[in-house]
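Quarterly update, task 2.4: manganese (II) ion-bound model.
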Amino acid sequence: MAYEPDKKMKFTFGLWTVGNIGRDPFGGPTREPLDVRGICDLLGDVGAYGVNFHDNDLIPIDATASQAAEIKKEFKKGLKDNGLVVPMATTNLFSDPVFKDGAFTSNNARIRAYAIQKTMRAMDLGAEFGAKIYVFWGGREGAETDAAKNPVEAIKRFREAIDFLCEYSISQKYGYKFAFEAKPNEPRGNMYFGVTGSYLALIPTLAHPEMCGVNPEVAHETMAGLNFVHHVAQALEQKKLFHIDLNDQEIGRYDQDFRFGQANIKQAFFLVKLLEDYKYDGPRHFDAHALRTSNYEDVKEFAKGCMRTYMILKEKAARWNADKEIQQILKTVNVEDQSVSKLTKKFNPGNAKKLLETPLDRIELASAPLPYERLDQLTMEILMGIR
Ligand code: GCO
Ligand code: MN
Ligand code: MN
């Protein structure tokens, strides 16, 4: 059947996403918890490629060694029976009260050390399941009042932790690539490194920039009212898009984690088009969860819906690229002129002199047509299924 999830797309979910039990700040769970085996079976059923986890999604923080061994055995079997892989792992540095004022950026050196220690152990766990991408989402790294923490120190502390953990990965030969995930707020009033660009700026200041990239999430830039596609484009252009969290979100709302494409299909389309046009080949991770009203069957529909929407939009993107009228408009607006481009390509005194002497008539230049109404309408008609 068309639009079936293709394993080559590397569609993944988190234990915490399809395992979400429908709790929110106003009410308790609406779904029975699934154990790791149950989650693997669900994901196998819907045709996912893999599953990711936080250390404590898999092994509860207070589990004994024998409980941990038992869960790992179950999980390994669940993965194998369902043909699933684990491309990414991460650390829960936000749920336990010890992290209430941050982990790597905490004011307390002992809590910072504990956060690094917990991450080392979680990296061991991820490596045991074959994970090659390690995500850092700054769950509680932030503040409600800047009286509480020095934001410059917070950056320095975060860098120190990452530099340490890069060396740990190297010394253990884990081969991890680190992917930083920005978010503007929630759960903290304000989080440090609020947008993907914040991490793109941090990376060159790290001891191992080559190991580090980003994990942008649709909901996060969108919460801040920003254009997510542009942030992903910058990461791609810098070859730093190591992972991506797909979901959806309405601007100005609480963190909704909607099914991919649920809220803004046009943004989802341009995102898929960008990823496909630039041949992104990392995991396409759905960091979303089903509505609180969903039961088990509907959670499956949620998971299938995320992947199916992606596959449909991928086809729409190919249709857009093949559309003769669209391509004609793009050709018209992308004016090429080698005689000036060769001057602006690289500065040298000769080129600068020639450029200053080149007649460029702004009134004539401004009169070139830009039929973007037509272009956008054609895009809409492709999306609405009549073109
Ligand atoms: C959120 C984040 C998290 C992270 C996860 C993996 O808004 O809560 O998106 O779901 O992605 O902790 O790092
Ligand atoms: Mn999120
Ligand atoms: Mn996320």
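Highlight for this quarter: The longest strand covers residues 50-54.
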